[in-house]
Amino acid sequence: MTMHPVTVKPSDAIKEALDKIEKGKFRHLPVVDGDGKLVGIISDRDIRLIHPSPLFVRPEHAPAQLLMIKVRQAAVLNPVVIGPEASLEEATKLILHWEIGALPVVDKGNVLVGIITYADLLREFLARDKKS
Fold first, then answer.
1. List of domains in the chain
2. Which residue in 104, 111, 122, 99 sits closest to 45, CA to CA?
3. pTM for this prediction
């Protein structure tokens, strides 16, 4: 699990989320409100799907379009979550069942404490395999 992941707010421009994803080489960003409560998650795929098409927007105008589109317009709201006390097996089952790439970890007050990605799970299973 990545503790205290990089986040965005629902009112942030998609451009800001894209910049954070590219800079950090992330695939998912949790979306939190002003109190740190999870409200959604946005992925690089979500951004690609909403990115202005060159068929409709001239390439030189695309950055301006990305400033006008807000994270809340592309994010998955109320995503599947898991608690910090959950097991690795529980996290794996949720990721496989819902076919998602990342699982936000929230406390009982829905405050974001971390994120588990499928890559985190693979690393952990490999580490366990080496120990046995």
1. 2-131 (3.10.580.10)
2. 99
3. 0.87
